[in-house]
Amino acid sequence: MCFCQRLLKDKDTPTLISRRTIYIFQVPAVLNVQLPKCIMDMLNRLKSTVGGLIGNPVTREFDVGPHIASAGPGHLWRIYEGTKKTTKQKVSLFYLEKKYLDKFSRKDREKLLETLKIGPTKLTKLRHPNLLVVEHPLEESRESLAFATEPVFASLSNLLGCREGMPSPVPQEVTDHELYEVEIKYGLLQLTEALKFLHNNVKMIHGNICPENVILNANGAWKLAGFDFFIQSSNPPDQPAQFSVREWEDDVTPVAQPNLNFFAPEYILTLNCDTASDLFSLGMLMYATVNKGKVLYDNNENVRTFKQNVSQLKALNFTSLGSLPEGLKEYVKMLLSATPTVRPDADQLSKIPYFDDVGAMTLQYLDTLFQQENIQKSKFFKGLPKILSKLPKRVVLQRVLPCLCKEFYNPDMIPFVLPNVLLITEMCTNEEYVRLVLPELIPVFKLQEPVQISLIFMQRMDLLLTKTPKEDVKHHVLPMVYRALEARSPQIQVSVFAIN
What we know:
- It holds the Pfam family Pkinase.
- It comes from Holothuria leucospilota.
- Residues 65-355 form the Protein kinase domain.
- GO terms for molecular function: ATP binding; protein kinase activity.
- InterPro entries: ARM-like, CIK-Related_Protein, Kinase-like_dom_sf, Prot_kinase_dom.
- This protein is of the alpha+beta class.
- It is built from 22 helices and 10 strands.
- The strands form 3 sheets. The protein has a 5-stranded antiparallel sheet with strand order 1-2-3-5-4. A 3-stranded antiparallel sheet has the order 6-8-9.
- α1 packs parallel to α3 (37-50), α8 packs across α14 (358-367) and α19 (452-459) runs parallel beside α22.
- The radius of gyration is 26 Å and the shape is globular.
């Protein structure tokens, strides 16, 4: 196999090209030479892999990895893995290659470009735990738009079965991903909290809440994005919010307008909107999420169909919502009322019994650990083992374990956290343990204070020796045992000699 063929198959090709792309593609023109066919094939393949990111200012700071997901209007944003060149920080790169818009009329292309710049620009200015974090603002080149965010797994739309804008083949971790009930509960609560912030603090309407604008980050947290159609209150902050509706434009492609399947009736029927309009969209999203992507009414991107379906909302009953959990059904029915004043606001919705679930509350508490005092944390960690057994394994590894490992930087908390991490170790395969747990434990092996750390390790030595590879036992576990033998604490020495 020649060098060019090997490079074509190299999984790191996008990273390679991001560093030297501009120079490579300029060489033939500058030198006025005809490169061999195999090299030209390689360059064309590389160019098609990362497309319009070539030359975008974002690639000056970030290396580009594999294409993993899609999001936004028409799923036009392709999402790539990325790494910051200076710090090696992991990010995700959202990019839109302008050639994707060639299928639209010139007027629609201009409208789409204008619209797609609004969302990332607004999101960059907003900060909240339940909004997608922008790590590098929107950059535009002749061929593309791009910006960088916290590491992303996929959009909710991707996980509900939409493959538009996805890589081919679709990553197996996406096709195999199952959204568990506890994740859906907490995810919907996270979106509700995001709306509380937008409505109460920022005095704005999101304007397009739908699955393609909900992003799951690398740890599985649900983040709201897609602010392409936000509406800011026109009143001063000290006065009640007032919003001006944007009319639906029949002569503009639906892709450049909010998703009609999640659009509140008042936008089109009475040309009014309020924060309650976002709650209607959230109700539609709740229905679609529980039903694995199936929408309550498919409006087929057609306003006439939209109006026909809206007329059926008055007859909406519990039977129509039969697939929803009992604790959610009555509230979704209120959210989908054609009368905005019937809908609960985000603050009221966040307090409904459906969200009062031990699993969802546990995930929420873990996300706020940095705000808690040590005494509160210690009580929580003591009760955590009972909850871990009730959570799905993937949720424990993806959502719980990273939060616990962050507490290893707080020595006073390690005796309370460590038993839970070792309990999770029991759930892990050897590969999962080596990849996810062992790197976090290695620094803890070296700690001798507080003495409870060594005691816990000695008591669970059988587990450590079973899971830890021989080389790591030699370099990390045995030195810990030797240090324990030299310890002054009789308890620790007794526990060392008790090891079989």
